[in-house]
Every structure is written in structure tokens, then in C-alpha cells.
Amino acid sequence: MTVERATIQPYVDGVPGRFFYQRYDHPSAAAAEEELGALEGGRALVFASGSAATTAVALGLLAPGVAVAVAEGCYFGTTSLLRRFEPWGVEVVEFDQTGEPPAGADLVWLEAPSNPFLSFPDLAAAAAHPGIVVVDATASSPVLLRPLEHGADVVLHSATKYLGGHSDLLAGVLATRDEERYTRLKEVRGATGSIAAPDVAALLLRSLKTLELRVRRQSETALELARRLAAHPAVTTVRYPGLGDPRAARWLDGGFGGLLSFDVADAEAALRVERRVRTILNATSLGGVETTIEARRRWEGERVPEGLLRLSVGIEDVELLWADLEQALG
Asked: Which residue of the set 75, 162, 182, 240 is catalytic?
């Protein structure tokens, strides 16, 4: 795979070409966007991170006086980032995404499924809403869900997670079918310099080749672990779309993803599990080929139960993972 490292390309007969300056566009980004657009069924843009993509949505699609309805229990970084725009006249409210969005919302922000509570949105109710609908599909990936096909206006990914899949790149993705929104988002990306770097885009292209294989394996293993955790006496709650959520079963295609969360008795019990795992990594983030576990209270505070553990299932053997969880819980 060839990765270009020049930040500039010479003009041809005094005319700037498409890739005249890397801050706006470059060949590796263009190649990754072509692949991602085909996966999502729209036009894609790659960003330096998922948060950079979220910022582009805020700068490109919001204005003073608009109301944003954000899925309750979604990734806490999304809500806190959007609230940074409140001093500029943006109203942010949280709502239960399993029901209808608030009537007065100008933009509806869903997460399918949410992180770390694994709730799944009512996509039909959102599509019927007059506001712009943004779906963060990081945890499902386009292998399992293509929100643009179900009425979403914009789909977002933290490509650091499943799209990258190896915990070795930081990137974000937006995709849309609306040409005007695509242009506005690309203009914001160029103005803010938030495009993914060439080497990152090249790594992302590499990862897309195995995306379906990884996600299918992770989904299969996660479902089995969720079932076993639900029967374990030390576990009080398991959250996973595959455990009987009719909304998830309706919208997800052939699996429920590799992310789940479960509760143990309290914060100390959660820390004991973290310290005892051996095969599973005690680390943050999710979506990689290596399984990770983390007590989320340290980052999210009282918005999550004190004993909540987030488990991102990798591609290891299910029995190896279960043996590690069982001894850690014991």
C-alpha cells in the first residue's frame, strides 16, 4: 500500500488540482472515503477522530437558537462536547431514544446501540421526525447497520473502534446522502484542519478488508458471553441488544455487535474484576481485536452504576475469554 507523505501537490498549468493541499484532501483519504461510502450507501468523509467528526456536525449543521435532542445514556463525551456549544445559543436536551424524539428538536442525535448502556433507538420514530437525524453507529458498524437506509441524514463513526479494529489508529467518519450537507461538512473539515492524516487513512483502508470477518466473530462471541454472564451469581445486570431487545433484532443484520456491559455488586467488586483479568486487557476504548474490560465509573461518574463494567469483545476464543471472566468474577 502506497501512502503519500507530501502535504502539497504542484498546480498543473497554474490550476490547483484536487489534492493541492493536504488539509483539505489527499489520495489516502479519498480512497478510504470511497470504500466507506460504499459501505454506508452515501458519501463519506474521514476525520482525525470521532470527536472531530462530532465537532464538524455541530459547526456545520447547528446554529444559535437550535435545539439538539441527544440520546440519554449515549457516549458521555458526545453530550459534554455538544454542551460546549450552549454558550453560543445551542440548547441540548437528553431523551429516551427508545421512544419518540422531542417535538421541538432541530437535530436528533441517536446512538445505535448506546455506550455503555446498550439501549437501541427507535429508528422509525426518528426518521418520521422533521429534524436532522444523526446516528452514531460506532458500536454496530456498517456490517450490522446502515442508518442512511433507514431514514438517517448523517451517520457517524469513531473509526478508532470497529472500523480501525486494531487499536492502532485514531479517526472518525461521517457519511450522508445529502450533497448540501456533505459540502458543508467538508468545508468545516478543511477550515478546522480535522482531516485524518495519510498514514491513518491508509491503516483504515487496511482494516476495512477484515471488517466483516471481525465484527461477525465479535458478535457471535459477545452473545455467548452475555448469556453466560446473565447466569452468573456475581453479575446483577447484563446489557446487550441480543438479549431480547426487539428494536435491535428488527434493525441489526446478522448480529448484535461486540460491545456489552454488566454490573457487579459495587465499585470495589468492579475494581477486583479489573485487577484479576489475565487474558482480557484492563484498558479503555473498544472495538479492537483484543478484548478489553473497564469500570466506567472512573470516567463517567454518577451517570453510571458504580459496579458497571464495559466489555469490548475481541476475536479470541470464547472459552478462553469465559475462563478469564469466570475466574475474575470468582
From this structure: 75
